[in-house]
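ok, trying the design again with the full structure, not the truncated one.
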């Protein structure tokens, strides 16, 4: 299940005991809407192994700025509190799954 990432809860999630996947998106973004069902499906498949969250860049501009998010969707992959990988733009489910697996 996906969690909503905000400026308030991000630090705790980033340093949690499970790797974190953050989908930076916006409601008006077409490619974001294309990848949303894929991310949601993977969040269910990897529940208990990874934390998967969505961060609305318009509601959390500080987080978007902190990570230099210039294009959306941008998906960041965190392990031990550090960014270890990222994907920018709409991708196939296979590509996302490859990155999810690499976090484990």
């Amino acid at each position: 299940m996906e969690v909503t990432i905000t400026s308030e809860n991000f630090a705790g999630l980033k340093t949690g005991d499970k790797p974190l996947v953050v989908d930076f998106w916006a409601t008006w973004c077409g490619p974001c809407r294309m990848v949303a069902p894929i991310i949601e499906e993977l969040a269910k498949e990897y529940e208990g192994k990874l934390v998967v969250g969505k961060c609305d860049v318009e509601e959390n501009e500080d987080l978007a700025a902190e990570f230099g998010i210039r294009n959306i969707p941008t998906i960041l992959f965190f392990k031990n509190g550090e960014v270890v990988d990222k994907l920018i733009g709409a991708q196939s489910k296979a590509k996302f799954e490859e990155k999810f697996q690499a976090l484990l």
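Keeping the full-length input from now on. Helices lie at 10-14, 30-45, 61-66, 93-103.
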